Amino acid sequence: MRVTVVGASGEFGSILSEILEQRGAQVTRAHRATGVDAVTGEGLTQACAGADVVVDATGTMVRSATESEEFFGAVARNIAIAADETGAAVVYLTIYGASDPAVNKKMGHYRGKAVQEATYAEMLGGAATAFRSTQWYSLPEKFLAMMSVGPFGAAPRMTSKPAAVEDVAAAMVDVVLDPNRPADLTVAGPAVMDLADAAKAIAAKKGSPKKVFAVNFGGAAVRAGGLVPEHPDVTTTTTFAQWLERR
């Protein structure tokens, strides 16, 4: 099977591409360094030519809701057009709960993901598979990197069923390589936890920052289970303790 991975240089896309190749897929890694700009569409049709499946694994670090909506909306439109022109199916990475207004109203990144989902649904319908992931164990580590000053750090209270990114990527590979893939699939980690607690454990393991404060972030729905799927289609196996032990 031929697969084009858009966003293949990112944390998720690079791991996904490696697993796809290990399982025998012919992978085209599409990102800016290979001449593909998914936001403008430059090089995208050429990168998708001959692909059976196009994977949208793109991401952005922007925090503004408007910028996030513009980014994910543009990328989804351009990939949908390229996939339609080349006859490829699409599997795109999104976040469980991101399209819920109660969850995304104070979360700019998630509002962008909501636009992404709506764009693919409108333009491709059942030809696009929404692969919904919960947060990854690495997310609290990123929060600490952004929200630490000297010996002090902060992390948001977010109730989730986080997972190891490698497990999530492996689950997506199963979907990508399945010719009878579903239109919608949710993957979650093995246990419910507060990401602020995960951040504290990560800081303790690294020895820095010395003190981590939990802060409210993103609205009540984020802390009350809006990010926790009751019945995920796939439950990953790597626990947070196992992931942390490998850090």
Key terms for this structure?
247 residues, alpha/beta, seven-stranded parallel beta sheet, three-stranded mixed beta sheet, 10 helices, 20% strand, globular
What does it look like?
By secondary structure, the chain is α/β, with parallel strands linked by helices. It has one domain (2-245): 3-Layer(aba) Sandwich (Rossmann fold). Helix content is 41%, strand content 20%. The strands form three sheets. It has a seven-stranded parallel beta sheet with strand order 2-1-3-4-5-9-12, sandwiched between helices. Strands 6-7-11 form a three-stranded mixed beta sheet. A two-stranded antiparallel sheet has the order 8-10. Strand 3, helix 3 and strand 4 form a beta-alpha-beta unit. Helix 1 (11-22) packs across helix 7 (165-176). The longest helix is centred in the N-terminal third of the chain and has 22 residues, at 65-86. The radius of gyration is 18 Å and the shape is globular. The two termini are 34 Å apart. The model has no long low-confidence stretch (mean pLDDT 96).
